[in-house]
Write a structure and sequence with these properties.
Helices cover 63% and strands 0% of the residues. It contains 7 helices and no strands.
């Protein structure tokens, strides 16, 4: 009774539009988008075919991709391929820090063999040998700390000379952690010989 005639006139028009959309499209009418090239259509079909259909397949595919990435990373650590190295080992700054550590003798790399010797000496039930083992522990720890401090200072200076204005943050700590490992166990594998300038 109090409705406006304008609303009543609009309602049938919308209903007509809805019913018109159910009719088949005239083949001569434009479809509203360009026809894709054959190569584009083929790649779309392939991507649809390779897309996992459920969560189980997606998880399996993700595990496989992760396994392949880890395998590539492991091979890169063995042969030094820069493309697949982990983020912590990438870049010229980290490469220089590795080469600098590998080119010199570090007290820390002999820690494991020395620790075994000291532990064997401390097991012996002779008071003089046990006190010698404790003294050796103290000497080794002091030497490692002093060597690490001197190495860190020298490496920081070399990095500032070699890479002025570049971000060298974390490179010294990275190099010191590498110096704690025995040379043959280091990854990525050493590229320089001892005494060689990096």
């Amino acid at each position: 009774m109090f409705r406006s005639r304008a609303k009543e006139e609009k309602a049938p028009a919308t209903k007509a539009a809805v019913t018109d959309s159910k009719q088949p499209r005239d083949p001569q009418a434009p479809k509203g988008r360009p026809t894709p090239k054959r190569s584009e259509a083929r790649t779309q079909r392939r991507s649809v075919a390779h897309t996992p259909t459920n969560r189980k397949e997606a998880a399996k595919r993700q595990r496989e991709e992760r396994r392949q990435a880890l395998e590539r990373q492991r091979q890169a650590l063995a042969n030094g391929d820069e493309r697949y190295l982990p983020a912590r080992d990438k870049g010229p700054v980290r490469r220089f820090a590795r080469d600098w550590v590998d080119s010199r003798f570090n007290v820390a790399e002999f820690f494991l063999p020395l620790a075994v010797v000291i532990l064997v000496l401390s097991v012996v039930r002779v008071g003089a040998i046990q006190s010698l083992a404790l003294l050796l522990w103290l000497i080794v720890i002091v030497l490692i700390v002093l060597d690490a401090a001197v190495s860190g200072f020298r490496l920081k200076k070399r990095l500032a000379e070699r890479f002025p204005g570049e971000n060298t943050r974390g490179a010294v700590a990275y190099a010191l952690m590498r110096s704690l490992q025995m040379r043959r166990l280091r990854l990525p594998k050493p590229r320089v010989k001892r005494g060689e300038r990096p």
